[in-house]
Design brief:
Blueprint (H helix, E strand, L loop, with lengths): L6 H17 L10 H6 L2 H8 L7 H35 L3 H19 L3 H8 L1 H18 L6 H28 L6 H28 L3 H19 L15 H4 L3 H8 L3 H24 L3 H26 L1 H17 L7 H30 L3 H33 L1 H23 L10
Length: 444
């Protein structure tokens, strides 16, 4: 009786057969030199380096389309309720402080779940993880019309926060995994632009619907938008993680010490991200309180951000992230400082457009650079997605929370220049860390 072939060897042969059948077309392509065929296309090489089987072009386009549909739906749902829920909470008797704490609970749940998302993705896979996040965003919306007490509203906000926390990490991580490193800037740029468009459309709509007390329609629209997340999830590969080979445990999970070691090279970039979103939180929270031209200024910020998420992504792929980061952050610094010109509409609007351009480019750049530092592996990209999203949410909260005392002490002439100075200092910190011998900071 012949000796049984070892499983590992048999599986390897089957995988080679699959790649021959699927990845090497007939005709002239099969006549390429052996060495060139072994290296594969850039997308295939990137997939090999991350331990994933490359998706065929049509399958990848479907996944990209699904990611963008999910991004629009998830952020449209989030922004609709973010702008409408405070008024609904007051209507239910929560009062202004209760309305504020409802948003705080939502964001606390978002932050709490994010560190656990890589393990969830590894267990469930891309499609099911993204679909689960969409369900957690959509289902509470359907229960909101029956929620008349602050306790129930808080419980539903926690569920939505958990869904949003999974969703935001899944969105950037899964989108980045679909592209090799050299094309990731444009991919992240498109993702960010779709997110921005969702915010531009949904946030004003939520405010308008709340003023008309059309809450039932608001909740239906929010639930329907979140359903797009589940629809977009269908574009990703099927199965509970079978699109990503299991591999050794050390490649999939990190202990606390490993996580700290992996985060250390990112500290400068994460500081820049936190400082830039601190400025974002301060601008959107306090500019309406200090500047008569705030509505036009905030619209200029949003439109400029969308445009320069795209432009920044193109420049990243062409010139490298490091060359884009410095001008992007400097534009954000100048735009933030212009918030002090609260009664000079021309200067304020110009500064707002500059802020949006710098902020949009900086968001794409910091995310791409952090992913480069983390390493082009599923574990590395997952950690980068978690770290960047936590930095974004934490910075936005810090700007909204700590900006109040600064505004009370010195007015807009103290608040906005002070935050701009902190952002400039964080850029200097990152530049210094980039020059530390042996420090890998993705200079490209």
């Amino acid at each position: 009786m012949p000796e049984e072939i070892p499983h590992s060897f048999r599986d390897h042969c089957q995988d080679l057969t699959f790649r021959h059948d699927q990845d090497v077309p007939a005709g002239p392509e099969s006549d390429r030199p052996v060495q060139e065929r072994a290296l594969g296309t850039p997308a295939e090489s990137a997939a090999a380096s991350t331990g994933r089987r490359a998706l065929v072009p049509g399958r990848r386009r479907l996944a990209v389309g699904g990611a963008l549909i999910a991004a629009f739906g998830g952020f449209a749902s989030f922004n609709l309720l973010l702008s409408a829920m405070p008024a609904y909470a007051v209507r239910c008797g929560a009062g202004p402080s209760g309305a504020g704490s409802l948003t705080a609970v939502l964001m606390a749940a978002t932050l709490a779940v994010q560190p656990f998302t890589p393990r969830l993705f590894d267990r469930l896979g891309r499609r099911l993880s993204l679909a689960l996040s969409g369900a957690l965003l959509a289902l509470p919306c359907l229960a909101l019309p029956a929620a008349t007490t602050f306790t129930v509203l808080t419980g539903l906000a926690i569920l939505r926060g958990l869904g949003f926390g999974v969703f935001v990490v899944a969105g950037v991580t899964f989108t980045a995994e679909l592209f090799p490193s050299g094309e990731r800037g444009r991919a992240i740029g498109w993702y960010g632009a779709v997110v921005g468009v969702a915010g531009v459309l949904a946030a004003p709509a939520g405010i308008a619907l709340a003023r008309q007390e059309a809450y039932a329609l608001t909740f239906v629209l929010a639930a329907g938008s979140a359903t797009l997340v589940m629809i977009g999830a269908l574009g990703f590969p099927r199965g509970g993680g079978t699109d990503r080979p299991a591999g050794p445990r050390s490649a999939r999970t990190r202990g606390p010490r490993d996580t700290v070691r992996a985060l250390r090279p990112m500290t400068g970039l994460l500081a820049v991200e936190i400082a830039s979103t601190t400025a974002y939180g301060a601008v959107f929270t306090f500019l309406p309180l200090t500047a008569p031209a705030a509505p036009g200024a905030l619209l200029a910020v949003q439109v400029s951000t969308v445009v320069f998420r795209l432009v920044g992504g193109w420049f990243i792929d062409r010139y490298g992230g490091r060359r884009v980061l410095v001008p992007a952050v400097l534009a954000t610094v100048l735009g933030t400082a212009a918030g002090a010109a609260s009664h000079q509409p021309v200067l304020l609007l110009t500064g707002a457009a500059l802020f949006g351009a710098g902020f949009g480019a900086a968001q794409s750049t910091t995310l791409v650079l952090i992913m480069q530092v983390a390493g082009d592996t599923p574990a590395g990209l997952g950690l980068a997605g978690v770290a960047w999203n936590i930095a974004f949410d934490a910075g936005t909260g810090v700007g909204s929370l700590l900006g109040g005392p600064l505004l009370a002490l010195g007015g807009p002439s103290a608040l906005f220049p002070a935050i701009a100075a902190v952002l400039a200092a964080c850029l200097l910190l990152d530049r210094w860390r980039a020059r530390v011998p042996g420090h890998d900071s993705s200079r490209t």
